[in-house]
Write a structure and sequence with these properties.
Structural class: alpha/beta
Shape: rod-shaped
Largest sheet: 6 strands, mixed
Number of strands: 13
Oligomer: single chain
CATH superfamily of the largest domain: von Willebrand factor, type A domain
CATH architecture of the largest domain: 3-Layer(aba) Sandwich
Radius of gyration: 41 Å
Distance between the termini: 55 Å
Order of helices and strands: EHHHEEEEEHEEHHEHEHEHEEH
Length: 335
């Protein structure tokens, strides 16, 4: 048995209590006539006897004594509140909730990102590659994913399962959310995701990857950023590609910078794979991991099991004696 412990070991001093009661407390006595006959006096006179007070003491059987001793031992043991250590459990305290907002407008299919070996990638594939590296370094954070174009939708709620998150990211394709860029609506949806998070973190970070200006959101990006700032959400924005030639029209970097500044974060411009990697490396330094885990073995109390055993034993014995008495009466009646 794994490390049996007693919360109140002093309770065992009660074990000899029944013996002390047996020794120092006399048995209950009751006075009553043992026999009633109209000629009792004549019988005594004939026998030359005088009336005496008789005493009878009921003695329990051996199995009854055993049951009483066992029951008392179980009750005292339950009072001591025994417990054992359960299986090892791990408690994880996640550091940050990081919500990724990825632009899927048609311009994200532009293959103008150059890698270290000279090959080219589409902006979306470049973003996927750097996200895989970024996620792998942050095992203590929970990640969510919002994809946006003409509209924004949640691709992945917050999860610590990196493989699931990456697999759902891999399913993202340009144009699946429309051809335009509704950045303000995407930020607004991100704020709602943070508000509805059942296990909110104190550190809430939003990272936006986009290559174009907002083209018709119900809420302007700057206004959405003000709401995010009021709720303590940081928004890092990464403008992908040349800001003078990307998206449906040249990107308004003033808006991008304003969104990040309002939330006490930073904005970045990534015109190739190397710049995109640097942006995420800097975000990784600005928002370091805050993760901790602790292993423990919970205590499992056993006292209610002991009480249950006592009750079950007495119930069985009472039932057995009742049935035995019923059968005895039936036999006498049949005779």
């Amino acid at each position: 048995m794994d490390q049996l412990e007693f919360a109140y070991p002093w309770a065992f001093i009660l074990l000899p209590l029944p013996v002390l009661v047996y020794w120092f407390v006399p048995a209950y006595r009751s006075r009553e006539d043992a026999i009633k006959v109209p000629f009792f006096t004549e019988i005594l006179r004939a026998l030359n006897e005088t009336p005496k007070v008789a005493a009878g003491l009921l003695s329990p059987k051996h199995w009854q004594r055993g049951m009483l001793i066992l029951s008392w031992m179980l009750i005292v043991s339950a009072l001591a509140k025994p417990s054992i250590l359960g299986e090892v459990q791990t408690r994880e305290d996640f550091g940050r909730d990081v919500l990724m907002l990825v632009d899927l407008s048609g311009s994200m299919d532009e293959a103008d990102f150059t890698t270290a070996d000279g090959s080219t990638l589409t902006r979306l594939n470049a973003a996927k590659n750097v996200l895989k590296t970024f996620i792998a370094k942050r095992s203590g954070d929970r990640f969510g994913l919002i994809l946006f174009g003409d509209a924004a939708f949640i691709q992945t709620p917050f999860t610590a399962d990196q493989q699931v998150w990456l697999s759902l990211l891999e399913e993202a394709q340009t144009g699946m959310a429309g051809q335009s860029t509704h950045l303000g609506d995407a930020i607004g949806l991100g704020i709602k995701v943070f508000e509805q998070n059942p296990q909110p973190s104190e550190q809430q970070v939003m990272i936006v990857l986009t290559d174009g200006n907002d083209t018709g959101s119900f809420v302007e990006p700057v206004d959405a950023a003000k709401i995010a700032a009021a709720r303590g959400i940081k928004i890092y924005t990464i403008a992908m590609g040349d800001p003078t030639h990307v998206g449906e029209q040249p990107m308004d970097m003033e808006v991008v910078q304003r969104v990040s500044q309002l939330t006490q974060a930073r904005a970045f411009i990534a015109i190739d794979q190397a710049e995109l990697d640097k942006a995420y490396q800097l975000i990784d330094k600005l928002e370091p991991q805050q993760y901790s885990s602790a292993s423990f073995r919970p205590k499992i109390t056993l006292h209610y099991y002991l009480i249950a055993i006592v009750l079950a034993l007495h119930l069985l014995i009472f039932s057995w004696m009742t049935l035995r008495q019923m059968f005895s009466r039936a036999e006498v009646a049949n005779e």
